[in-house]
Write a structure and sequence with these properties.
- This protein is mainly α and about 120 residues long.
- It has helices at about 5-15, 25-30, 35-45, 50-65, 70-90; strands at about 50, 95-100, 105.
- It is globular.
- Pfam families: DUF7344.
């Protein structure tokens, strides 16, 4: 996967406007995975909650190679998001993830995104 589509958003996240409440080790760990970087890039621009399936759609459509079956990849990616990435981001305080409703809410803290 490539995450160039969300470069501007990711750069804002990397500069501390979205992940600024995290220490360097935790921020590095979360950003060490390309899928999580893509998710963070999508969420960095959001101010409202997003459903898991919509988040998976946005990330997969932006990052999947053209040779991939997008529908199958999206379903697989939803599972990975649900069981792996979103719980990690929730534990770090980057998102609030309700696994029962599949609602992802980007957390805004004292270093929230500026206009």
């Amino acid at each position: 996967m490539t995450d160039n589509t969300y470069r501007w958003s990711r750069d804002r996240a990397l500069n501390g406007t979205f992940l600024g409440h995290l220490g360097p080790d935790e921020r590095h760990y979360l950003l060490s995975d390309s899928d999580r970087r893509a998710v963070i890039g999508v969420l960095a621009d959001r101010t409202t909650p997003i459903h898991l399936s919509e988040l998976a759609d946005e990330v997969v459509l932006a990052t999947a190679p053209t040779t991939v079956d997008v529908d199958a990849h999206r379903r697989e990616f939803e599972i990975v998001l649900h069981h792996n990435h979103l719980p990690r981001l929730d534990d770090a305080g980057v998102v609030e993830y309700d696994a029962a409703t599949n609602r992802v809410d980007p957390v805004r803290n004292s270093t929230a995104l500026s206009p």
